[in-house]
Amino acid sequence: MRFKRAGDTRWRSHYHSIVNLVLLYFSVIIAIENIDDTLSAERRGEVVLILDKMRTFEFAFSIHLIRKILEITSELSWALQRKDQDIVNAMDLLKIYKHRF
After folding, report:
1. How many Cβ atoms are within 10 Å of 27's Cβ, its own excluded?
2. What are the structural domain ranges in the chain?
3. Strands (E), the chain
4. Staple partner for 13: which of 6, 18, 39, 53, CB 3.0–4.6 Å?
């Protein structure tokens, strides 16, 4: 499993990036901790700040919340982009997804 570059307009790519971050969270932490010591002091300071932020409850909560939001919105986006979609069905889908939120 690896991270892919997220597309600017594709909700699905953002969703998959967040899912991968959730699944690989501890591996990402370990990888960041093992960044080569040849970094400048300024860069090492940035790494420490990133690690400190990633280890907070707020960060963990946020990535899980964003994952759930993107899961819902990417499903809706995909459904609304179908060529056989009509306006009545689209409005019903919006009600369903609004309720899911």
Report:
1. 12
2. 11-100
3. none
4. 6
